[in-house]
């Protein structure tokens, strides 16, 4: 058995538990991986476990704002094995429907999810000759022959630094903390960020507040008839082209920034879907540009994205200069017992989407079962 240098309390004093695979995370990427591990014949608990830091099923979807909807119909938003049920209403499925689907998916395949079980570190063994990694968690230490990190990005909201941020007297929050427009009623609100989140929050907040939308570059709007089905097709075509050694088309990024969901189209029709260049600094009462223009503001909403939530992998020392872990597909180049699933194009085109993560989860499990077979 290994001895772990980390942890405290009762869980840390328990002897390590040996399993073949530990999946870190509890959202769509973790569940897709769990599905393929189950299909590969690994036994729940003894063969694999899924450690979810969340209090309940649903992953990041549990924390989305209530009005958020998918970009695709239910039948184009499914994990492997089971198609997402229809919503029974017109339009794209809302976030609550996705949470219900992920909850039932987990139950349908009887996946061995432990929660809340927060993983604090993944380490190579110290002073021992073994083919396992030590996974330290709030419920104890696991010794795994392979680890799949599927924590996504929700745990690391990103806010860029601008001069004067600490002097601003109004409200500042990241889109991760946005729950609806009501708290902004009657205020002057600056929405920062040119992606889908920025456009959708602008559309919603502008119905109750005076809004200013600022972006690093002018946003590019997709045609009204383009939704997630077309985006996934583009991502798939890019993957095939790259695999064939052809030039990188840029995939979805080459199409545009903003999907024209109904709320965004309605904002366009109201004449509020206009972006200003990024401001230079914050002031106590608003934001200011280099030419001296000043916009009074009571609140600033940072729709500036997220970063991969990889802190638990820090003891392995794998991160490159860009903050990412270099991979071949999903497998870490510096630690072949580690796979990363669901973080975006750098771990597989479309892998941060419901319909796209299945492919990369399958590829990861194929490599893992080959690894386990070679060490039987």
From TrEMBL:
<dbReference type="GO" id="GO:0050660">
    <property type="term" value="F:flavin adenine dinucleotide binding"/>
</dbReference>
<dbReference type="Pfam" id="PF13738">
    <property type="entry name" value="Pyr_redox_3"/>
</dbReference>
<protein>
    <submittedName>
        <fullName>FAD-dependent pyridine nucleotide-disulfide oxidoreductase</fullName>
    </submittedName>
</protein>
<dbReference type="GO" id="GO:0004497">
    <property type="term" value="F:monooxygenase activity"/>
</dbReference>
<keyword id="KW-0560">Oxidoreductase</keyword>
<dbReference type="InterPro" id="IPR036188">
    <property type="entry name" value="FAD/NAD-bd_sf"/>
</dbReference>
<dbReference type="InterPro" id="IPR050982">
    <property type="entry name" value="Auxin_biosynth/cation_transpt"/>
</dbReference>
